[in-house]
From TrEMBL:
It comes from Aurantiacibacter xanthus. The keyword Transmembrane applies. Keywords: Membrane, Transmembrane, Transmembrane helix. One of its GO terms (biological process) is phage shock. The keyword Lipid biosynthesis does not apply. The gene is pspB. NCBIfam families: phageshock_pspB. Pfam families: PspB. This is Envelope stress response membrane protein PspB. The lineage of its organism: Bacteria, Pseudomonadati, Pseudomonadota, Alphaproteobacteria, Sphingomonadales.
């Protein structure tokens, strides 16, 4: 029995501890990735935000037509400078799907 104690000590140090560490490193890496469900949700949220932005532009145009003193607090509608980030995001989504925009 006394001969097995050093064997178990060495085995736990060189086999057990690395196995535990690598197990949790693998769990950590897989948990940090975005799943396909997350990607679908992000794309739906992006489409919703895009529709809401278009609706805000419409509401601001309607209010501005009724009230000439109205100054929108948001960025101006459909300016190319403001839409650069949206175009980059749409390009990335198209490349992810394998299509070109």
């Amino acid at each position: 029995m006394d001969d097995l104690i050093p064997f178990f000590a060495v085995a736990s140090i060189f086999i057990g501890l690395p196995w535990i560490v690598l197990h949790y490193v693998t769990k950590w890496k897989t948990a940090a990735t975005i799943t396909t469900d997350d990607e679908v949700l992000l794309e739906e949220l992006y489409q919703l935000a895009k529709r809401l932005d278009e609706r805000m532009d419409t509401v601001e145009r309607l209010v501005a037509s009724d009230n000439p003193d109205f100054k929108p607090a948001r960025i101006h509608a459909d300016r190319e400078v403001d839409n650069v980030q949206l175009h980059e995001l749409e390009k990335m989504l198209a490349e992810k799907k394998g299509t070109r925009a």
